[in-house]
Structure to design on (123 residues):
């Protein structure tokens, strides 16, 4: 008698646990169905967004190639401009030195220098 009483208590406990598990599974099933319906509603917009993202990435790839090419061209132009300025500076300096040497070697400047030296010696 006691064994039947204990067996019935264990059976009732198992039934209560089984009912709780079934209720939990039914609740999860309802949530999964709600998520599935939300995904079904969003699916067209997700595909549109992925298409837009694909197009945007293609445009970025094209624009980045153009940007890199422009930077290369600009850097080459900048380098050529700087080199031309440096070369012009050397050319101008070289011409200035040649002109200064010619002026120093000319008879007129030698005479002027002698005249100034003579005036300095007199004073």
């Amino acid at each position: 008698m006691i064994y039947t009483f204990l067996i019935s208590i264990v059976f009732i406990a198992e039934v209560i646990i089984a009912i709780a598990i079934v209720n939990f599974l039914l609740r999860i099933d309802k949530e999964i169905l709600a998520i599935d319906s939300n995904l079904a509603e969003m699916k067209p917009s997700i595909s549109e967004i992925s298409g837009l993202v694909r197009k945007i990435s293609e445009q970025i790839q094209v624009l980045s190639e153009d940007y890199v090419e422009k930077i290369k061209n600009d850097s080459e132009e900048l380098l050529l401009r700087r080199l031309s300025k440096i070369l012009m500076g050397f050319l101008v300096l070289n011409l200035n030195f040649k002109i200064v040497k010619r002026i120093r070697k000319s008879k007129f400047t030698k005479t002027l220098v002698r005249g100034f030296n003579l005036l300095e010696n007199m004073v």
Summary: The chain has one domain: 2-122. The chain is about 100% helix and 0% strand.
